[in-house]
């Protein structure tokens, strides 16, 4: 990879990082819109909560992006940028142009996504087995003893 291409990507990453950090600084912290929830309709409270959670999720995403960019910039300083962090193969320039913060080849990026699946998926299946409900009912239900006869 030539030095001019590397410098272009570095400037692009630094600019993107600066924009993200500025957005994070300007981001408003969630706050309640009313002093009391007594006379608020539950739907209004739900709308406020949804707005707050959306803002928090966006900020978290921005923070994750900033961390990825910082890792890519550090790899540039270390001289490891452009090589897959898993297998050591060269990352194609097309991938780096499309995603300058990439530290893995496409093959290993897909493996990373698979690793991020929720832990619950290992235990839960998409379609419950018929005996799953019997097990759950052992922990209690609203049925009275006369309902079970």
TrEMBL record:
Residues 79-107 form the Zinc finger DksA/TraR C4-type domain. A zinc finger (dksA C4-type) spans 84-108. SUPFAM superfamilies: DnaK suppressor protein DksA, alpha-hairpin domain, Glucocorticoid receptor-like (DNA-binding domain). Residues 16-53, 113-149 are annotated as: Disordered. InterPro entries: DnaK_N (IPR037187), Znf_DskA_TraR (IPR000962). Keywords: Metal-binding, Zinc, Zinc-finger. Residues 16-25 have a biased composition (Acidic residues). Transmembrane segments: none annotated. It holds the Pfam family zf-dskA_traR. This is DnaK suppressor protein. It comes from Lysinibacillus parviboronicapiens.
């Amino acid at each position: 990879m030539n030095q001019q291409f590397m410098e272009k990507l570095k400037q692009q990453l630094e600019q993107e990082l600066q924009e993200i950090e500025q957005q994070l600084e300007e981001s408003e912290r969630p706050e309640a819109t009313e002093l009391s929830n007594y006379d608020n309709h539950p739907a209004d409270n739900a709308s406020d909560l949804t707005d707050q959670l959306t803002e928090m999720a966006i900020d978290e995403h921005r923070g994750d992006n900033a961390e990825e960019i910082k890792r890519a910039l550090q790899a540039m300083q270390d001289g490891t940028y452009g090589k897959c962090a898993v297998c050591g193969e060269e990352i194609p320039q097309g991938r780096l142009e499309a995603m300058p913060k990439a530290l893995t080849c496409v093959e290993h990026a897909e493996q990373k996504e698979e690793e991020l699946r929720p832990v619950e998926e290992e235990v839960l299946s998409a379609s419950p087995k018929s005996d799953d409900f019997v097990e759950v009912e052992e922990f209690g239900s609203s049925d009275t003893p006369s309902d079970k006869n």
